[in-house]
Amino acid sequence: MCRSIKTLRPPAMAEEATADDIRAAALQYVRKVSGFRAPAAHNQEVFDRAVEAVAQATEELLDGLEIRGAATRRAS
Predict the structure, then answer these.
(1) How far apart are CA 9 and CA 62, in angstroms?
(2) Sign of CA dihedral 14, 19, 20, 23
(3) How far is Cα 76 from Cα 47, in angstroms, rounded to an integer?
């Protein structure tokens, strides 16, 4: 897959993932899947929607994960 996407959950990431971390990972994923680093103007809207959908799904995933040995979940 895309080696520049880092693991965003503890303990792999010491501090809580920020919205910027999540969006950067989503952008890298959409770039990899689409094959476009920057889409043409006629594809920009669907590209941006995909990035936002992946970022939202990532936030939901991180919010719902139960990490054994961790005291709390992410604060939304």
Answers:
(1) 7
(2) positive
(3) 25
The SS3 call for residue 71 is: coil
Taking the C-alpha atoms of residue 59 and residue 49, their distance in angstroms, rounded to an integer, is 15
Q: How far apart are CA 56 and CA 52, in angstroms?
A: 6
Give the ranges where 1-76 is alpha helix by DSSP (H): 19-34, 44-64
User: Could you report the per-residue pLDDT of 30-66, keeping only the tens digit for each?
Assistant: 999 999 999 999 999 999 999 999 999 999 999 998 8
Q: What is the pLDDT of residue 3?
A: 64
Q: Which pTM does this prediction carry?
A: 0.81
